[in-house]
Every structure is written in structure tokens, then in C-alpha cells.
Specification:
The chain is an all-alpha fold. The protein has two domains: 36 residues, no CATH class; 41 residues, Arc Repressor Mutant, subunit A (Orthogonal Bundle), CATH 1.10.10. Helix 1 packs across helix 2.
């Protein structure tokens, strides 16, 4: 098969299933073709951004904790004081 790059200009939404248009909009046609080449025909699970970011957020909270700023951290990360304490106790 020809290189995928050769198809990026011709591959318009007209040829892509409508349910995939939002994905193409986010990643672009070239990346979409690469995804199709790699994962085509299979089901792919994409985690929510919260699942990806939560460990990083928790790490920041633990790093920024100074022993008495639970309320501040709660405001900053939009979590309750109880949730902040839970994060701090997970270490």
C-alpha cells in the first residue's frame, strides 16, 4: 500500500464515518490514518482525562502540602478538605 501521507489531502469527512469526525477534528487526518493503521478493526479504550491526570494532581498536592494548608490546597484543586486528607494519607 502507498504511504499514508499521500492520502491525507484527499481523505475528507465525506469518506470518514460521521461518528469519527470529532476524533479527526482533534487529532488531524494524518494522525487519524496512523491510528487506523495501528488499531484498525479493534476496539480501543481511551481513559478519561481525570484518570490520566489524577496521579499527577495527587503528587502535586503531596509536594505542596506544608502541614497546615489543607484548605488552600482544597481551593486550588477544587477538592474538599476530606479529599485532600485522603490524598495525603495515600502515600
Amino acid at each position: 500500500m502507498e504511504k499514508l501521507e499521500e492520502w491525507t489531502e484527499e481523505l475528507t469527512n465525506e469518506y470518514i464515518p460521521e461518528r469519527l469526525h470529532p476524533l479527526v477534528e482533534v487529532v488531524g487526518v494524518k494522525a487519524f490514518l496512523e491510528l487506523c493503521s495501528f488499531y484498525g478493526g479493534s476496539n480501543v479504550y481511551l481513559p478519561t482525562t481525570n484518570v490520566l491526570i489524577m496521579p499527577l494532581r495527587d503528587q502535586r498536592i503531596r509536594k505542596e502540602y506544608n502541614g497546615k494548608n489543607v484548605t488552600e490546597l482544597g481551593r486550588k484543586y477544587r477538592l474538599s478538605e476530606r479529599q485532600i486528607r485522603h490524598v495525603l494519607n495515600k502515600e
